[in-house]
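Fold this complex.
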Amino acid sequence: MRRKRKKTGRLLFLSGMVISALIIFLGNKAVVKTSTDEYCASCHMHPQSTQSWKLSTHYDNQQGIHVHCVDCHLPPHGEGYLTEKTMTGLRDIWAKTFKDPESFNWEAKSQIEYAKGHAFEASCIHCHQNNYPLGLTKEGREAHLYYERQAGELHCINCHITVGHHDPNRLHAKNIDFGIIETAEVALYTEPGVMNGFNSFTEYIPGSAVSFEMVAIPGGTYQLGSPEDEPFRNDNEGPAREVKIIPFFMAKIEVSWREYLAFFKQTGAQGKTADAYLNVNQGDVDAISGPTAPWGAPDQGWGKGSLPAITMTHHAAEVYCQWLAKITGKKYRLPTEAEWEYAARGGTETPYFFEGDPKQYVKQGLRNKLFGVDTTGINSYIAYIKNSGSRSMGPESKMENPFGLVNMLGNVAEFCSDRYAEDAYSQYTNGPLTDPKGPAEGEEHVIRGGSYRDGADNVRCASREPTRSVPWLKTDPQMPKSIWWYSDCISVGFRVVCEFEEITADQQ
Amino acid sequence: MKPTKTTSRRRFLENSALGAIGVIGASQLIKSCAPGETTGEVVVPTILETAVDGQPLRAGVVGCGGRGTGAALDFLNAGPNLSIVAIADVFQDRIDGCRKELKEKKDVELADASCFVGFDAYKKLLEVDLDIVILATPPFFRPEHFQACVEARKHVFMEKPVAVDPVGARAVMAASKQAEAAGLCVVTGTQRRHSWNYQNVVARINAGMIGEIVSSNVYWNQSELWHREKQPTWTEMEFMLRDWVNWTWLSGDHIVEQHVHNIDVSNWFVGRHPVEAVGMGSRLRRLTGDCYDNFSVDFIYDKSIHMHSMCRQINDCANSVSEQLRGTKGYTDCEKTIWDAEGNELYKYESPVDEAGEPTINSPYVQEHIDLVTAIRTNNQIVEAEETAISVLTAIMGRESAYTGKKVTWEDMMGSDMVLGPKGELTMGPVDIKAVIPIAGSASN
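Structure:
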């Protein structure tokens, strides 16, 4: 009996060993099998993911090395490889089974903030152990010194985003050809537009073939800021103040690439240093020194034309207005945030300038999924996260607000001339205000309207945010950093306003 | 010799594990990874009387003035199988002088073909078959020369300071990392770090003998250094080069050129660099150039540790070249003595002497080369350039604060695009530089 039990025990033990070995063997085999590029590609149908990989230096390089999907998209072996592989696998199976590939927002997923979660820095460093190889350029050496001082804040792909998947629009390098490609010969305007009393007019940029519409915004009084019971209200939107606005003109659309490139071509300072300051005291258009060559592709490869110009700094936007004022002989400038909100509201007092409930738009509940929220209103007027595909849009895509302005809310956020303060509205003296201009001091400026990246909660008329100079220049490797282009901000642009001369004359 | 902060720990562990001649013990290694922390154990590295013998090492000298020639002799005195095979300078008379001295003192014969003259002489020298380059030109040239040496895979001995402006200092930091990755050895002429007396003191400070460090004072107050009168036959460039210690673009001013030694000692003992500086200075009696002749700078490390730095080059004033470091439990002159808080002597370094009373250890100027040669021959990599560049940038931060009257931060320095010196290629002609002596601040109307 005892002998038999012993024998059974041995058998059990042996078979246990065999099964374990088999599991390990098969498991290992499964890991290897499911880690091939072909296996990854069998599910991952991202537009051009394989193609762009094959065009990248991680596939086609002088060393003849192919860097495989799992080399970057999983951490190194022994540093969480299997855990991450399991999690990724489960996530992928879920998505493959239950999600509609059409519903994926690939543009958003290709942005660095998202990509950081799917390209492991430890994996970069696992292969690239020397940041200072002989032969590295001076700029490269400076940039790597900078990277090392930004411990934890910068990921390799902040600059090297294209190494795994080629994208000509995102190369991290000085873009000296930007904006100088000649367009077809067309008649150039020689005279600026004519302002005929307080009526909307068309502005013509002399020396260019570019024109744009300026809308007459009648004066009036309104509540600046949001009421305390407005959904998603932030503290910086109050206390609401009664504000009087005198008549002015505002551009119908956000400054387009077509408009901005006219400025770039006429004033661009190719070859100047990154911080070449303008000199506008000469009273001479030629004295305005415009932007230096940008870093990377400012338009993100989305195209230019009527799309809103982006990635220019607040300073650059101000210089644009000064330039525009000089060549048209009018008083162009950035709007104050009081003017901006007045124009955005167009006489309304609701969260948006149309009927619509932010809470309904933001809700993500099952009921909304099944029955659908009526987003007709918001979709007609605002380019925001749920309808933008994480890109800016041209002005033709959305409907006008009551004043006839397009894309005041969403699309790209817009610079105002005010310095930003969280409590700007309570800093003003008591009583009704007339054309307030914001705090006298402050490091950052106000941006308004939210952008294509924001949810419905942040594209309300009263939503306000500050510029973020430091993070928006994080990966600019130049010393000093550019005063003209943000390296890390792709959702902010601006819109010009023009003062009404007669009013100005009366007041003087 | 101890590993610098730039020597990667992994590389060092590998080297140690390989059983290369152990110049330092394991506990020293651990301590070197956490500068400033106290371990309680006093570990002083062994000092070598002469460099370890091994493969012949051939050196070239770039910059054949007094220091370059001196460094060449120090190198030859460092041990067996060492030779100087090429020299380079912008001036023929400097070449001749160096050649003569090497012949007289060490019987070194240099053929004409091994002597190079001109601004690009260093490039020609780098084409010679050699292992080590000694860089001893005015510091303006150092970043460019050092980069070229590293790209050519040469070991380097270079004099301090290693740059005159922030762009140059950062270039040396990066080139230092390249040298490290390429397995090269670099020693930088911070001779206090190679002095056994300083090493004995720092080991005790690191072990906690004076507690936590709370402040330091560093001084280089001396008489006028030297200057040259402009000769009628000299071009402007020749005059500036021969008078280089008086020109900021060439020397970095005396706080950088000379006082960096003491600032470096403070950084070494404290274990890090200051984060900001507020300084003042002026030019009272200097005769040529555009440098100041006195600086007083308050450097602040994190945790509000202040280093007061003072330097002067004016005759007939109180002089001192020294450091003072105060801790929670005592103080030290860094050079050889440690006291408790009441002024009782806790430790005093005694220089080892032989029976005749002669010191048995080398001058630190030779010791630097002994350490370099030993590091190369024993495969115990040593790369000091980054740490020295950090101390040089510290001094530049103080200088810029004194010149401008503003507070200058480490971040300012690490982001600054300041490049001194004339633009474009250098020639022996006029120099396109406005010699303006900076005056800080403004006067009331």
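Chain B touches chain A through 18 residues (CB under 8 Å).
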